[in-house]
Amino acid sequence: MTNLSELRQTAAYHFIQPAVRLLARTPITPSALTWFGFLLTIGATVLITQGHLLVAGVVVLIAGFFDILDGALARHLNQTTRFGALLDSTLDRLSDGVLLLGILVLYAREPSTAGILLAGVALLGSLMVSYLRARGEALGIECQAGLFTRPERVVVLALGLLLSQFDYALIVALAIIVVFSFITVGQRLVHLWRQTKK
Fold first, then answer.
1. 95-136 pLDDT tens trace
2. Are 30 and 77 spatial neighbours (Cβ–Cβ below 8 Å)?
3. Which residues contact 127 (CB under 8 A, 6 or more apart)?
4. Radius of gyration for the alpha carbons in the chain, expressed in angstroms and rounded
5. What does the CA dihedral 159, 183, 84, 15 come to, rounded to 10 degrees?
6. For residues 181 and 125, is the Cβ–Cβ distance under 8 A?
7. What pTM was computed for the model?
8. Which of 32, 61, 81, 167 is deepest in the core (most CB within 10 A)?
9. Which distant-in-sequence residues (6+ apart) come within 8 Å of 131 by Cβ?
10. Taking the domains of the chain in order of start, what are their residue ranges?
11. What's the rounded Cα separation, in Å, for the pair 66 and 55?
């Protein structure tokens, strides 16, 4: 699982470095990028509740890009701070919750019992994945283990929105998020159990 985490970080590094180098020449701060990404997520949520799912999918992808970019810019400028990391993590959790609540609203209007249940369970799963990492790190244990972390959830959700013109595409995306989020919860629990047994 460590190799998977390193692979994610390496891929993200090569993908965003051109943008990081460009932004480093501007007065834009990493915290400004964090807030901008969060505001984009709020915009995407409004679009979802209004049924504009294709546009919302595009906005979710752009917001996800800014979510990766803020930390990379902070490291590039040597401006990493504990509060910056806390702000980023907090707004990430809020972004996850807001998007899935937006989908809950969408399915409550239709109404779709399956959509409501999947969005609710997806919210629980995503929060548990993040909680286990935070709890592990509070115990002094690095916990990036797991197959399905936030970037994967964002991409799958965005694809579900982008393909929403096809029947059940968003339902399938939510089901994938639910299944793999709880697989990741299990993987992180096993990882933390092994680390605490040492």
1. 999 999 999 999 999 889 999 999 999 999 999 999 998 888
2. yes
3. 93, 96, 97
4. 17
5. -50
6. yes
7. 0.86
8. 61
9. none
10. 2-197
11. 17
